[in-house]
Design a protein that fits this description.
The protein is an all-alpha fold. It has six helices and no strands.
């Protein structure tokens, strides 16, 4: 089927739409999982602890490193999948995972703090959007390489992987700098 489509841009667009669909499916699944959870009080208690540590004196460097490392590992997995034919199935699950985490976090914040939880989640929205969109594009490129085996795109994907690491470092800086600053402002007003 894909061998009949000569326009790589349209295939890349199709893969991007598929990955975005999986991301949205993950958001919905994460939200439903929280709503159906047996013990939401334990989740809410943990969430409050995380918010407290972010709003107080947790090391910004630790946050930056953990966000950058986590996202770089996920990005590396997606890029490595491009070099295997069966690697085409991994990026949708990565999108599903990132969507699930996003949906679960937003549902927890809103359940914990009602409408003020939306303001709280806006503090992490920028870096989450940046990472999610980058992973969707990287996943679409990875799927394209996995299906076509095109060596030119493989070289571009490796270059894009290096660019992706810098995006993840920026996301880490955003989470470590902006999020902790906003949390210091928002969290005391929520309690």
């Amino acid at each position: 089927m894909l061998s009949h489509i000569n326009n790589r841009k349209s295939v890349l667009g199709i893969f991007s739409i598929i990955l975005f669909f999986f991301f949205v499916l993950g958001v919905v699944s994460g939200t439903i999982f929280f709503i159906k959870s047996e013990n939401p009080d334990a989740i809410i208690s943990y969430f409050k602890e995380v918010c407290t540590s972010l709003s107080q004196n947790q090391s910004k460097i630790d946050i930056i490193k953990s966000v950058a490392i986590e996202n770089t590992l996920i990005g590396a997995i997606v890029i490595l999948c491009a070099f295997f034919k069966l690697g085409v199935v991994v990026p949708p699950f990565v999108s599903l995972y990132k969507g699930f985490i996003t949906g679960f976090s937003v549902a927890t914040a809103i359940s914990t703090y009602n409408i003020r939880g939306v303001a709280l989640m806006s503090t992490v929205a920028l870096d989450t959007a940046l990472v999610s969109l980058s992973l969707i594009l990287c996943g679409a490129l990875s799927m394209l390489v996995s299906v076509t085996g095109d060596k030119k795109i493989k070289k571009f994907l490796i270059f894009f992987g290096i660019f992706l690491i810098s995006i993840f470092c920026v996301a880490g800086l955003m989470r470590g700098g902006l999020t902790t600053t906003f949390m210091k402002f928002f969290y005391p007003k929520l309690s």
